Amino acid sequence: MSGSAVGPALTRLPEALGLELGTLLGDRFSTSPAVRDHHSRDESHHAPEAPDAVAFPESTAEVRSIVNACTRYRVPVISFGAGTSLEGHVVAHRGGLCLDMTRMNRVLRLSAEDMDATVEAGLTRKQLNHALRDSGLCFFIDPGADATIGGMTATRASGTTAVRYGTMKDNVLGLTVVLADGRVIRTGGRARKSSAGYDLTRLFVGSEGTLGVITEITLRLHLVPEATSAAVCSFAEMKGAVDTAAAVIQAGIPVARVELLDEAMVEAVNHFSGLQHKVAPTLFFEFHGVSERNVVEQAEMAEAAARENGGTGFEWALRAEDRARLWKARHDAYYAALALRPGAKGWTTDVCVPISRLTEAVLAAKADLAASPLKGALVGHVGDGNFHMVYLVDPARPEEVDEAKRLADLLVVRALEVGGTCTGEHGIGMGKMAYLEREHGEAVEVMRDLKHVLDPMNLMNPGKMLRA
Predict the structure, then answer these.
(1) Taking a C-beta distance cutoff of 8 angstroms, is the pair 67, 96 a contact?
(2) What pLDDT, on the 0 to 100 scale, is given for residue 292?
(3) Cα dist. 101→29, 32, 70, 155, 454 in Å?
(4) Which of 57, 301, 354, 386 has the greatest number of C-beta atoms within 10 Å?
């Protein structure tokens, strides 16, 4: 870790607190400008704001000591995982101390018989699956980035496999959380169901670090499928692609993933990942089953639905290396889109709508972009009605920033009008607080009441989710 144990005087973090944390953590407490800058941003368009200092705890006990000290001095605490969030979740909007959780990356317990595990918050999803490689089990929640399990829990993440395996709220069984007053609570448990008390686990899943610091997570795991196949299919028109995704879900075909890329995103992925897909609206499918025959039946039903909607060129990826290459290209989509306009910043937003309204929502978003001077692209986990727009802007040009805001606003308002949500998986962060209020109305006041009870001084990730 660069920087001395305490470092130079800081703007907001009191010198006495710096001395205390330096004594507790040694070189795992840093005020180095480079370290602070690294922890000032995520992958969003929101402007970086550096914390006053960064701490690297290695246990729940250390997190508790750090939080207790920060509470005494009324210093904000911002939890930091991999920095891959997309709504400014880790931006130190009011300074304070950044808690980098990446040294807490152990698998604490694994039960193959019960198909569950308890892990520390700083473990990434790829590290977890590497640890599971000989168990016959897998953690399937896949947001694309190699995010930490704590960060995925805090943002209620999902991703490409949510259509079959659910989101983090479906796969988190219990938590260990350090509250603002220093209490360490354990929510939930390993039982697959319980009627005991309030569901505090679900309260903290998706709380974006605003109610406490998540340090340990007990997760539901899944069996590695006996058979897997993937396929790509292109369409002459976007409507055919979206109608196919909806038809597959409505027919009950147990697809594991169904991803939509518009023609701009396909072109971007081709250039960025060295592929040769037809530049057209495209669906990526993956099928999991108990046998090869089971997988083939699923794929044949999906292929028939695609052909009915004008799908052509159904190409299969049966070998593991071919599937990995296919999904790596999908996971690189954000960076591929940025390469469409070198030097641009990606203004990324997402919504989720009922499957029956997905086609009109996607077509409206595409029409808005076509009428705009901005360049952009669409990608979506359309199996559950969730899709993302990436608008490419020059942050130094206010008119482009304003146009991206206008397009994002149109997208969200339409989603809410058809019974959807302002965010399917990115979360609220700094950017969607007004939409949260529009979506939930008076319920937001209840959220504020809960925040006040658990964090009366507003020290846990302030400036996120709820307006002061």
Answers:
(1) no
(2) 86
(3) 12, 18, 16, 15, 21
(4) 57
Structure token pair of residue 34: 């480079």
Alpha helices in 11-124 (DSSP H): 15-25, 33-38, 60-73
Domains and CATH numbers, the chain: 15-100 (3.30.43.10), 107-223 (3.30.465.10), 227-334 (3.30.70.2190), 341-429 (3.30.70.2740)
Residue 55 Cα to chain centre, angstroms: 23
79 vs 81: CA distance, rounded Å: 7
Q: What was the pLDDT predicted at 10?
A: 42
Task: Express each pLDDT in 81-136 by its tens digit.
Answer: 999 999 999 999 899 999 999 999 999 999 999 999 999 999 999 999 999 999 99
Helix 443-454 crosses helix 433-440 at what angle (to 10 degrees)?
Answer: 120
pLDDT score recorded for residue 81: 96
Q: Is the model's pLDDT at 2 over the cut of 70?
A: no
Q: Which of 278, 275, 276, 282 is nearest to 237 (CA)?
A: 282
SS3 call for 440: helix
Please list the residues that pair with 390 across neighbouring strands: 348, 377
3-state helix, strand, coil in the chain (%, to 5): 40, 25, 40
Strands 97-100 and 53-55, sheet pairing: parallel
Q: Compute, in degrees rounded to 10, the torsion defined by CA atoms 308, 309, 312, 316.
A: -80
How far is the C-alpha of 113 from the C-alpha of 35, rounded, in Å? Answer: 42
Helix (H, G, I), strand (E, B) or coil at 242: helix
| Degrees to nearest 5, angle at CA 434 with 429 and 435 | 85
Which strand (E) or helix (H) includes residue 303? helix 292-308
Kindly report the CA angle at 264 between 263 and 268, in degrees rounded to 5?
A: 115
10 Å CB burial of residue 410 (0-12, 13-18, 19+) is middle
* Mean per-residue pLDDT over the chain, rounded: 93
Structure tokens belonging to residue 355:
């499957």
Cβ neighbour number for residue 201 with a 10 Å cutoff: 21
pTM value is 0.93
Residue 375 and residue 366 in contact, taking contact as beta carbons nearer than 8 Å: no
